[in-house]
Amino acid sequence: MSAQRIRLVRTLWLILFWFLGFSPTSAIAHQSSVVYLQLVPNQHTLSLTLRIANSDLYEALALPSDRAIGRDEATTHRERLARYVMSKISVENVGQPCPGRLVASELNERQGGFFVVDTFEFQCPRSIEDVRLTYNLFFDLDPRHQGLARIELDGQSREFIFRDGNRTLPLQRPLGVLDYVLDYLRLGVEHIFAGYDHLAFLIGLLLLAGSLWRKTSRREALGYVLRVVTAFTVAHSLTLVLSALRLVSLPSRWVESAIALSIGYVAVENILLSTGKRRGLLAFGFGLVHGLGFASVLRELGLPKTGLIASLLSFNVGVELGQLAVVLLALPLLVVLSSWRGYQSYVVRGGSFVLLLMSLFWFVDRAFYMQLLSRVIH
C-alpha cells in the first residue's frame, strides 16, 4: 500500500471519528446541549421551568472534570445555578424589564441521566401585554444548542425552538402552520446530523456497498443501497409517527441501548460477511428501533395542536433530507475507495471495528448509566 493511500485512509478515519461524535462538541448522541422549557404567562407574572441535563452544566459552571452534579451538588450550587440562568435569560413586558427569581429547584432522574429542574417567576410591573423572552443559555459554549419551549397561553399550548440566530420569543405573536412546518423541518434535519448513533448505523450499512460495487456490479451495489435505505426509512418513519403520537412507548434506556447494539451487530456482520443478503430485512427491523429514538425529541417537546400533522410530517421529511445528504456524501467516497485493493480489509473491516468499539462504548454508557462520554470529554 502506497504512503499516499495510507495517509488518505488515516485522514478518512480521523474524519469519521470527528463526524460520529468523538469531537469535544458532540458529547453524546441525542444529548448535545438541549434544554426543555415550559412557559406559563399570567396576569402580572411569567412562570418559566427549565430542565437542564446534568452533563450540560459541567463547562457552564466550571465544575471539576471528575465530578457530576448529584443531589448534594445541586443543593450546594442552587444559587449559583440560578445566577447563571438569570444572567442568560431576560423577560420584558412592553419594553420594561421583568425581574425574576428562583422559586423551586429539584434534581430528577430521567432517560438515563440526571436533570436539574428549576422554576423561575418573572414579575412584571404592569399587566402582561407584549412579553418578549430573550434566551442566551449555552450558546456561548455550543452554537448548535437548542431550547425547546412549550408555551401555555390562554388555555392552549404552542411550541417554539430557540436556536442561535433566533433567541427571542414574542409570546403574544401567534404562530401559523407555516411557522411550525419550517421549525420542525429544520429540527428534523438537525436531529439526524446530531444523532451520531443513527449516522454510525447508516454508514455501517453503506460500507458494504463499496464491496459490492467492486466485486459484482454497479447495478447490484446501487440496488443494495436502495433496498437498505428504503427499508430503514420506512421502518423508522413508522415508529417515529407512532411514538410521537404516543401510541407506542418504550423506556428510553431500552431504546438507546438497543440502538447502540444495532450498530455493533451491523459491524460484526461487515467483518464476518461480504454479501448484502437479508440486509433489507435487517435495516427494517433495526429501523423500527431507531424510529423510537428519532421520536424522543418530539415526545419531550410535544407536537402543536395547530398544524399537528404538518409538523410531524415536516420533522420526518427533515430527518429524511438529512439522511439523504449523508448517503449522497458517503456513497461516492466509498465507490472511489472501492477501487483500492485494501478496501475490504482497511475500510470495511477496519471501519466496522471502529463502529463496533463505538457501539460497545455507547451501550455500556446507556444501559448502565455510566455517563462515560461526559467523563471523557470533561
Layout of helices and strands:
Elements: H1 3-22, E1 34-41, E2 45-53, H2 57-61, H3 71-76, H4 78-88, E3 89-93, E4 96-97, E5 100-110, E6 113-123, E7 131-135, E8 146-153, E9 156-163, E10 168-170, H5 177-194, H6 196-215, H7 218-244, H8 252-272, H9 279-294, H10 296-301, H11 308-337, H12 343-367, H13 372-377
Parallel strand pairs: 1-8
Antiparallel strand pairs: 1-2, 2-6, 3-4, 3-7, 5-6, 7-10, 8-9
Helix pairs in contact: 5-11, 6-7, 6-8, 6-11, 6-12, 7-9, 7-11, 8-9, 8-12
What distinguishing features does this structure have?
6-stranded mixed β-sheet; 10 strands; 56% helix; 13 helices; 4-stranded antiparallel β-sheet; alpha+beta; 2 domains; disordered C terminus; elongated; 378 residues
Describe the structure.
The chain has 378 residues and is of the alpha+beta class. The protein has 2 domains: 3-29 and 187-377, no CATH class; 34-174, no CATH class. Helices cover 56% and strands 19% of the residues. It is built from 13 helices and 10 strands. The strands form 2 sheets. A 6-stranded mixed sheet has the order 5-6-2-1-8-9. The model is unreliable at 21-31 and 373-378 (pLDDT under 50).
**Quick check: average pLDDT?**
81
Chain oligomer state: single chain
Q: Helices and strands, in N-to-C order?
A: HEEHHHEEEEEEEEHHHHHHHHH
- Roughly what percent helix? 55-70%
In what order do the strands lie side by side in the largest sheet?
5-6-2-1-8-9
Strand content: 15-25%
How many domains make up the coordinates? Answer: 2
Major sheet characteristics: 6 strands, mixed
Query: Termini separation (Å)?
Result: 38 Å
- Low-confidence segments: 21-31, 373-378
Note the total helix count.
13
Q: What's the Cα radius of gyration?
A: 23 Å
Query: What structural class results from the helix and strand content?
Result: alpha+beta
The count of DSSP E runs of length 2 or more, i.e. the number of strands, is 10
Globular, elongated, flat, extended or rod-shaped: what is the shape?
elongated
